[in-house]
């Protein structure tokens, strides 16, 4: 087949910007190490890191592939890292990912690496022996080249460089300006030829220090009858702080400073163009025609028509049908642990082996629900660890999962058949990202994956003192719903003894075995009960007792002074503690703690006590009402958690009756 090529547009911007050349030459030159470089200290950087990137430079471009009568993509990288101490040694373990489609693979060239040290009053150099470079297959599409830098010690500088040549035009290298350690200087440039059209997105809270585009007229190039110059796009960021993945984020990919590229179009010499970035409706049509997606659903329906007994669902409501369908798939098939928006096995293999990936399970579930006469469609999404979906550019690459959307009465319910201990009408929490695309013909609908229905855990604690008053005995009954119940079931099924770990960590001794309730019934609230003994604190004629036995949160998860990205707690949640304490004979409660109440759109906190006869009842509840909070809410959350920690862990004081001072 004859290949036709025509000039394509230069790189398209996903945002408007003005460009200008800015003097920005760094003092770092690859291969030129000075004594001053080796004398850099961790204290020169915020947070005393174990290592830091002194510079990281990447460059992408295109070269002619004469055998293919076309172009290959090139990527060059030159990197220098300062190792301060053992905490930074992991950065001397280098991994270089290479893409393969199973037929061909990206090739690495000009790999070199060297470690520099200051020894005996001079700079020593230890090059990498290429015999120590090895390969590791990550999955069907990725192979890692790996090596460990030689002679690394506290104070070392490591440098490495390499070139990758790739036949995959769609795989123009993305670039990360930010890492988990500081970066002094990061630069990425792309030399675009006028044969391909790309779009890019820049993810950063601040503009690059340098962002410029210009035509490189120093070299004229020719391909076929077309003469052209490269179009250079260059980005520089300086003094980039280490990425600090504080508690409550989705994926690093949603927040790291980086630039992503997507091939948008190819233009041909006869005047027509091939659009790579399509539209969502067109992508939906492609999915519905795909053998491992839409056709898999159709094949599954044909299979179920012959093998599923519809008498099993006669007289059932839609909600009961959904519960039956999810349970049917869970009981007859198992998840092999792999994600995927497509079925990884043929229907014949899946039904014979009775195991498959997420695509196999949930596309089959969709087919079963449709066969039952229900309104059900597949929904493709990106898991939390994979990063959020951005709907500006219709591309399938960001999706790595498929679930089922089904209409139950006047509600839309998301379902998944992979987790035995998850309720039938609840997605596993790994799926609680931002949104999913409903794959339905002649439609473009997005569904919100967040849930505002709170998952609740309630601890009822009954406390009595031992006869010698040197310890307390407590019966703790824990009830949990929704995602809290799901996690408790998974803990129990993995290792039942793990249920007692939170109590042991707080100095409690188990008295007898744990009793459980509904551990095998995902549709019901789960329960457990333990009896424990714990030392109290006696000072003179006073006994000090923490009514909630230190089970509430004791360390504020919000430690930073400020935050630039949202606080994502996965799902709304409520935590309740109710402690009933029997006062020992001869003692009385010194005073009830102050009541405390907060109720607003973000959070609800209630703490109160009641003293009646020889019993004290202390109740504490806090509810996080939203699964996601804006960065501007960070300070409020930090303050509220300070109050929760202070009040929910405060101690009651019981005083000997004859030791009370009359007022």
Keywords:
663 residues, mainly beta, Immunoglobulin-like, C8orf32 fold, Jelly Rolls, eight-stranded mixed beta sheet, 9 helices, 38 strands, 14% helix, globular, disordered N terminus
Structure in words:
- This protein has 663 residues and is mainly β.
- Helix content is 14%, strand content 40%.
- The chain has nine helices and 38 strands.
- Strands 24, 25, 26, 27, 28, 32, 34, 35 and 36 form a nine-stranded mixed β-sheet that branches. An eight-stranded mixed β-sheet has the order 6-5-9-3-2-11-14-13.
- β29 (537-539) and β30 form a beta hairpin.
- α3 crosses α6 (358-371) and α4 (318-332) packs antiparallel against α6.
- The longest helix is centred in the middle third of the chain and has 15 residues, at 318-332.
- The relative contact order is 0.08.
- Residues 73-195 form the DUF3857 domain.
- Keywords: Signal.
- InterPro entries: DUF3857.
Computed Rg? 31 Å
CATH topology of the largest domain: Immunoglobulin-like
Ends apart, CA distance between termini? 102 Å
**β-strand amount:** 35-45%
Broad shape: globular
Q: Count the beta strands.
A: 38
The main pleated sheet reads as: 9 strands, mixed
Instruction: Indicate the CATH class of the largest domain.
Output: Mainly Beta
Task: List the uncertain runs.
Answer: 1-23
Share of helix, binned: 10-25%
Instruction: Identify the CATH architecture of the largest domain.
Output: Sandwich
Mean pLDDT: 88
- Helical segment tally? 9
* Oligomer kind: single chain
Strand-pairing-aware structural class:
mainly beta
Give the number of domains.
3
């Amino acid at each position: 087949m004859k290949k036709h090529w025509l000039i394509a547009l230069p790189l398209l911007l996903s945002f408007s910007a003005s460009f200008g050349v800015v003097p920005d030459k760094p003092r770092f030159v690859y291969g030129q190490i000075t004594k001053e470089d080796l004398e850099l200290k961790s204290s020169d950087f915020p947070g005393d890191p174990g290592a830091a990137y002194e510079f990281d430079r990447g460059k992408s471009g295109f070269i002619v592939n004469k055998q293919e009568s076309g172009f290959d993509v090139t990527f060059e990288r030159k990197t220098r890292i300062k190792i301060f101490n053992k905490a930074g040694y992991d950065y001397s373990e280098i991994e270089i990912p290479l893409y393969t489609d199973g037929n061909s693979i990206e090739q690495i060239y000009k790999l070199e690496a060297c470690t520099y040290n200051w020894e005996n009053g001079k700079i020593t150099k230890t090059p990498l022996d290429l015999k120590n470079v090895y390969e590791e297959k990550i999955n069907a599409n990725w192979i890692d080249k790996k090596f460990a830098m030689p002679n690394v010690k506290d104070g070392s500088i490591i440098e490495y460089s390499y070139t990758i040549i790739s036949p995959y035009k769609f795989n123009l290298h993305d670039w990360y300006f930010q890492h988990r350690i500081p970066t002094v200087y990061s630069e990425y440039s792309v030399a675009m030829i006028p044969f391909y059209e790309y779009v890019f997105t820049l993810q950063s809270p601040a503009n690059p220090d340098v962002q410029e585009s210009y035509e490189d007229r120093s070299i004229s190039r020719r391909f076929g009858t077309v003469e052209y110059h490269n179009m250079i796009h260059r980005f520089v960021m300086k003094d980039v702080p280490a990425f600090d993945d504080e508690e409550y984020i989705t994926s690093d990919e949603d927040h790291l400073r980086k630039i992503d590229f997507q091939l948008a179009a190819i233009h041909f010499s006869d005047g027509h163009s091939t659009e790579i970035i399509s539209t969502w409706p067109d992508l939906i049509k492609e999915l519905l025609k795909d053998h491992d997606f839409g056709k898999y659903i159709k094949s599954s329906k044909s299979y179920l028509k012959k093998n599923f007994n519809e008498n099993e669902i006669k007289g059932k409501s839609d909600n009961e049908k959904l519960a039956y369908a999810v349970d049917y798939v869970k009981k007859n098939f198992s998840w092999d642990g792999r994600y995927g928006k497509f079925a990884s096995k043929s229907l014949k293999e899946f039904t014979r082996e009775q195991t498959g990936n997420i695509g196999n399970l949930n596309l089959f579930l969709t087919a079963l629900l449709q066969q039952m006469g229900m309104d059900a469609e597949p929904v493709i999404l990106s898991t939390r660890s994979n990063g959020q979906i951005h709907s500006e550019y219709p591309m399938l690459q960001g999706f790595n999962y498929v679930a089922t959307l089904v209409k139950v009465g006047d509600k839309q319910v998301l379902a998944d058949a992979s987790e035995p201990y998850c309720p039938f009408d609840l997605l596993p929490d790994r799926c609680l990202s931002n949104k999913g695309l409903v794959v339905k013909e002649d439609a473009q609908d997005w569904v919100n994956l967040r849930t505002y229905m709170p998952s609740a855990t309630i601890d009822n604690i009954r406390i009595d003192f031992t006869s010698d008053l040197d310890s307390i005995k407590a019966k703790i009954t824990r009830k949990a719903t929704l995602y809290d119940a799901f996690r408790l079931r998974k803990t129990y099924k993995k290792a039942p003894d793990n249920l007692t770990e939170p109590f042991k960590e707080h100095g409690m001794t188990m008295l007898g075995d744990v009793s459980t309730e509904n551990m095998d019934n995902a549709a019901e609230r789960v329960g457990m009960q333990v009896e424990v003994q714990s030392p109290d604190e006696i000072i003179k004629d006073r006994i000090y007792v923490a009514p909630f036995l230190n089970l509430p949160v004791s360390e504020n998860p919000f430690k930073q002074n400020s935050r630039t990205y949202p606080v994502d707690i996965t799902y709304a949640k409520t935590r309740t503690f109710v402690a009933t304490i029997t006062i020992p004979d001869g003692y009385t409660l010194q005073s009830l703690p102050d009541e405390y109440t907060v109720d607003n759109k973000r959070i609800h906190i209630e703490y109160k006590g009641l003293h009646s006869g020889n019993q004290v009842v202390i109740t504490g509840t806090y509810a996080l009402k939203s699964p996601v909070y804006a960065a501007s809410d960070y300070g409020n959350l930090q303050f509220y958690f300070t109050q929760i920690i202070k009040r929910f862990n405060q101690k009651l004081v019981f005083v000997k009756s004859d030791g009370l001072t009359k007022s």
